[in-house]
């Protein structure tokens, strides 16, 4: 179970990196842009609603099954936890998360206005 906890936490970190930096990577990739926009909207919903993130629930489940208290365990798990769950007040994390998502959505609005959102790299942008 410990390996599954680290795997889910690693996936969670990768997901957060996609949400934060996805607008950079998705330029000229219309389908990835759509998926990233959906991920951004999901991120906003999870931040402002009482619904927990499914990845957080999975992490807690596997950590408890491995016999770890929250935020304890292996070296890797300790540092991944510190990155995914910074030791900040909840309101700061919520504002930061929503701001990052809104900034990314602003990039997509700018691309849509310029006509670049659905233009593929293959067509010679």
Describe the protein in words.
The protein has 125 residues and is an all-alpha fold. It has one domain (2-116). Helices cover 72% and strands 0% of the residues. It has helices at residues 2-25, 30-48, 54-65, 75-84, 90-114. The termini are far apart. The model has no long low-confidence stretch (mean pLDDT 82).
Given the C-alpha coordinates, what overall shape results?
elongated
Number of strands: 0
**Structural class by secondary-structure content:** mainly alpha
> Which consecutive residue ranges, at least 5 long each, have pLDDT under 50?
none
The total count of helices amounts to 5
- Proportion in helices: over 70%
Number of domains: 1
First and last CA, distance = 47 Å
Organism: Acidicapsa dinghuensis
Keywords: Membrane, Transmembrane, Transmembrane helix
Protein name: DUF2784 domain-containing protein
Transmembrane segments: 32-54, 91-110
What topology emerges from the helices and strands here?
Layout: H1 2-25, H2 30-48, H3 54-65, H4 75-84, H5 90-114
Helix pairs in contact: 1-2, 1-3, 1-4, 1-5, 2-5
Transmembrane segments: 32-54, 91-110
Keywords: Membrane, Transmembrane, Transmembrane helix
InterPro entries: DUF2784
Short description:
Keywords: Membrane, Transmembrane, Transmembrane helix. With 125 residues, the chain is an all-alpha fold.
């Amino acid at each position: 179970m410990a390996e599954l906890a680290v795997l889910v936490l690693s996936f969670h970190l990768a997901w957060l990196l996609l949400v934060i930096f996805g607008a950079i990577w998705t330029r000229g990739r219309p389908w990835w842009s759509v998926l990233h926009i959906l991920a951004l909207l999901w991120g906003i919903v999870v931040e402002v609603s009482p619904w927990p993130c499914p990845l957080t629930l999975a992490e807690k489940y596997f950590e408890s099954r491995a016999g770890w208290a929250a935020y304890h365990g292996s070296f890797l798990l300790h540092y991944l936890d510190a990155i995914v769950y910074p030791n900040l007040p909840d309101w700061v994390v919520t504002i930061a998360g929503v701001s990052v998502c809104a900034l990314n959505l602003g990039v997509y609005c700018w691309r849509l206005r310029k006509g670049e959102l659905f233009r593929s790299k293959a067509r010679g942008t």
